[in-house]
Each structure stands twice: as C-alpha cells, then as structure tokens.
Amino acid sequence: MNRYKLKKTAVPYLFLLPFMVIYLLFFLWPALYSLGLSFFKYSGYGAAKWVGLQNYKNLFHYDTMWKCLGNTVFYFIFSFIPTMAFSFLLALAVKSKSAGKMRSIYKPLIFLPQICAVVASSLCFKIIFGERVGVINQILGKTIPFLTDPAWMRWTVVVLLSWRGIGWYFIIYLSGLTTIGEDITEAASIDGASGLQNLWHIILPMMKPTFMVAFITNAIGSFKIYTEPNLLLAQNYDPSMKVAPYINLIINSMSGGQFGMASAAGWILVAVILVLTLVQLKVLGGDEE
C-alpha cells in the first residue's frame, strides 16, 4: 500500500521533471549566473575581477544609460499611451450595436498588425519612410530624413510601435468591455442617462482594472523594446545612442566585452519590471478588497 501511495505521489513529479530540468539549466542558472557576474569585471576571457557594486555605480554615472532610459520613456509616452486611448475607442466602436454583423470583420482587421511579423512590418515601414524612394517623400516631393536624422528617427519608431500595438490593446479592452453587462447600461439609459454619462459613470470606473493591466503591460513592454527600432533603422542607427532603447545598452555592453556591466544593466531592468509588477498587484488587489 505504501509503495502504491509513493508511486501515485511520484508520477506527477516525473511528468514535471523534463520541464524542471530545462528551466533550471536554461532559465534559473543563467539568471543566477548573470546576477553573480554583475559584481565582477569580466571581458569574456581571463579571470573575472571582483568589483562589488562598481558596475551599478558606473551605470548610474553613465550618460548612455540615461539616454537609453530617456528614449524608452519617450517611446512609452508618445507611442503606447496614445495607442491605449485609440485602442479603447476602437473597442467601444466594435462593441457598440452600430457595428452589427460587421463586428466579425472589424476584429481581425484591427488585430492584423499584431500578427504581422516584426521583420515584415519594419521592412514595409522602411519602404514607406525611406529618404530617397520612400512613399511619403515621393508624395510630398521632399526628402525628409525619417530614417537618418535622430529627431525624425524617434518619431518614425513611435509610428511603427503604435501601429503594431493597436491590435493587442484592442483585444484587452474588448475583453474588459464584454465583462460589463448590457443590463447595467440599459438600466442607466432607462433612467435617463446619455451615452456619454454611461461611459463616464459606468464603463470607465468598471474598466479601471483593465486599464491598469494595459498600463503596466505597456510600461513593462517599453523597457523590452528592441526589435522594431533596430530593424527599422538598421545601418542608420547612431553610435551615440540618441534613439536607442534600454535593451541596446545591454547588447552594446556585451558586444564591447563588458559582461559585468551588461549583467548589471539587465538586473536594473529586472528591478524596474518587478516594481511595476508589484504596483499592478497592489492596485488590483486593493480594487478586489
């Protein structure tokens, strides 16, 4: 009987064993190794030299880190926040009765940018915003340096990020709107509430948890931006990091043989994401109470 109980208890863990081995070898161990490496000066060969918190101190006095951080905040404010607002308006329009049978067509069309490959999206935007043969410059009859001038480059990245993000947040908001029963808004309408009053006093307050999830997801996602600007700008990327997001700081540090500093930059990113996640849990937990 004891052997049967032991076997019954052990079987689930045997199914978990392959995942645990992969997780330990390829996720947990590299993470812990990078944490330890952040306290060393290591160029990839030779012996690592213990420097304590010096890598972290150097980063906070490193102008490039603040440039990359500023770019990340710029992309968050001017790309993600307007995208969130526009996605919400689209979700309201699709959820409304006026959408009718066309709703099943609108949904995939709005979500289409999200499922497009990043490489394909970036290539299309390079064709649209190209300096000499770009579609926009051909229409305007001008040569606007969308992909070569840092002042224009950042805004071009903003347009690409906004276009790609609309579908994702549209789905989040549409899911949140479906949790609001139509009987609530209909009852308010019977009592004389207008559509705007319904939106302000019923829909927006009930959508607060969804807004918070979208906002925190946006904030975390902004710190992980890398593929879009690097593919879009390609050879025009400036070495002074005037348009580079935060992830480029880590990649460039590794390319320069500064593995300790790259690890420290990575763990600063982990700390920021952890704080944002805790804020989200705190706010949503407070709403549930």
From TrEMBL:
Among PROSITE patterns, the record links this protein to: ABC_TM1
One of the protein's GO biological processes: transmembrane transport
Q: Organism source for this protein?
A: Hungatella hathewayi
The membrane topology term of the UniProt record is:
Multi-pass membrane protein
User: Which UniProt keyword terms apply here?
Assistant: Cell membrane, Membrane, Transmembrane, Transmembrane helix, Transport
UniProt record similarity statement: Belongs to the binding-protein-dependent transport system permease family.
Transport among the record's keywords?
yes
Q: Which SUPFAM superfamilies match?
A: MetI-like (SSF161098)
Spans traversing the lipid bilayer: 12-32, 73-94, 106-129, 152-174, 259-281
Pfam families to which the protein is assigned, alphabetical? BPD_transp_1
Tree of life domain:
Bacteria
The protein here is known as ABC transporter permease subunit
Primary residence: membrane
Q: Name one GO cellular component term.
A: plasma membrane
Domain (ABC transmembrane type-1): give its ranges.
Answer: 69-280
Q: Where in the cell is it found?
A: Cell membrane
